[in-house]
Specification:
Blueprint: E1 4-10, H1 14-31, E2 37-45, H2 48-54, H3 57-80, E3 85-88, H4 93-103, E4 105-112, E5 117-123, E6 132-136, E7 139-143, H5 148-165, E8 173-177, H6 186-198, E9 203-205, H7 207-217, E10 222-228, H8 229-244, E11 252-257, E12 266-270, H9 287-300, H10 306-319, H11 333-343
Parallel strand pairs: 1-2, 1-3, 3-12, 5-10, 8-9, 8-10
Antiparallel strand pairs: 4-5, 4-11, 6-7, 11-12
Helix pairs in contact: 1-9, 3-4, 5-6, 9-10, 10-11
GO molecular function: metal ion binding; oxidoreductase activity
Pfam family, one: Iso_dh
Keywords: Manganese, Metal-binding, NAD, Oxidoreductase
Length: about 350
């Protein structure tokens, strides 16, 4: 039976990037002589810009809830059918975080250099980014929660993932970046209990303390940072730039659902947003989407070496100066993808014509 992956598309540049994803995935499948099916959500989800263009506050609230309900059910259904992975283009953050709260999501990224490997585990299931809004005359009241259950699930996942990342057991430090001084000491207690349960040491720190230590000393060679969204959403891009020499426009990352309704399902996304201002211009940078297709093919469709094959192809394009305007190039999205597809070879070696 051929592997099947999911595809969810938002507005803005979502349709263009979905087409890139399908083309690249199909080329990789052809290179490896395998079939990879794609099951697409029938709903095109709103971006924040498309919501604001179409509606006032009450309608925005309604459409936000509809998008969240639909996407959460799409994820649950894919998981029940055994679909291992979904590629999702950017959608409205409020809808997205309602889904992440319900399905208890964590975002995972490994930011690596030859000397340092930093595992960032972002707690997307609780805190200010989740929760509900209540409107009153001249006021908006946002109610959110932290819980012992979710905190334990996030820590347990981070420990498992670290042990998978470094199977020899060598973790130099685990840091948690949360504004815990606002939580009456409850988070301190939950973290201490969880650390003892897993046999690890965890340093619970204020976000500014984590920042100061990273600026002064950098991360230790094998560092895990577990972070609330309030810090990680801002700092992800900074960590990529400072410790990974990478731009968010080129980066894909993964979200893992911890709720039993979607357990085992992994969602891949670009780190960049919906880029509504570029919609229809054939100018959006496709690199993050290309990388997501390669990761999904390798991890979930049996195409061992697909990531390296695509990276070599991207390196070939870089040597030839082929790129979109945000990377200093003069090429369209379509031209970049065409050039990449022409140089992909299943053994990981770009075709001879690549650098001619």
């Amino acid at each position: 039976m051929e592997p099947v992956v999911g595809l969810a598309v938002g507005r803005g540049t979502g349709p263009e990037l979905a087409a890139v994803f399908e083309r690249v995935l199909a080329r990789i499948a052809d290179a490896y002589s395998v079939g990879i099916g794609v099951t697409r959500s029938e709903r095109v989800y709103h971006s924040y810009s498309s919501l604001k263009a179409d509606a006032g506050i009450e309608r925005v609230r309604e459409l936000t809830r509809e998008d969240a309900d639909h996407y959460a059910e799409f994820c649950r259904t894919r998981a029940a059918l055994g679909v291992p992975a979904i590629f999702r283009t950017a959608i409205n953050a409020q809808s997205l975080y309602l889904v992440r709260q319900r399905l208890q999501a964590v975002k995972v990224d490994v930011i690596a250099t030859p000397d340092v490997s930093l595992l960032l585990v972002r707690d997307e299931a609780q805190g200010f980014y989740t929760g509900e809004n209540t409107h009153a005359p001249g006021a908006l009241i946002r109610t959110m929660a932290f819980s012992r259950e979710i905190t334990e699930k996030v820590i347990a996942f981070a420990v498992r993932r670290a042990r998978r990342e470094w199977p020899d057991g060598g973790v130099d430090q685990i840091v948690m970046a949360y504004k815990f001084h606002l939580l009456d000491g409850a988070l301190d207690e939950w973290v201490a209990e969880s650390a003892a349960r897993h046999g690890v040491e965890i340093c619970l720190s204020q976000p500014d303390t984590v920042n100061r230590n990273l600026i002064e000393r950098g991360p230790r060679p094998r560092t895990v940072i577990i972070a609330g969204n309030e810090w990680a959403d801002i700092m992800h891009v900074v960590l990529l730039d400072r410790f990974g020499s990478e731009r968010q426009e080129n980066r894909c990352t993964e979200n893992v659902y911890l709720h039993p309704d979607a357990a085992g399902l992994v969602e891949y996304q670009t780190v960049h947003g919906s880029a509504d201002d570029l919609a229809g211009t054939d100018a959006v940078n496709p690199v993050a989407t290309v990388r997501a297709a390669a990761v999904i093919a390798e991890r979930h469709a049996g195409c061992a070496g697909a990531v390296r094959m695509v990276e070599r192809g991207l390196e070939s394009l870089g040597r030839r100066g082929i790129g979109t305007p945000d990377l200093g190039g003069r090429h369209s999205t379509t031209a970049v993808v065409h050039a990449l597809l022409d140089v992909l070879e299943p053994d990981g070696r770009p075709a001879m014509m690549a650098d001619s």
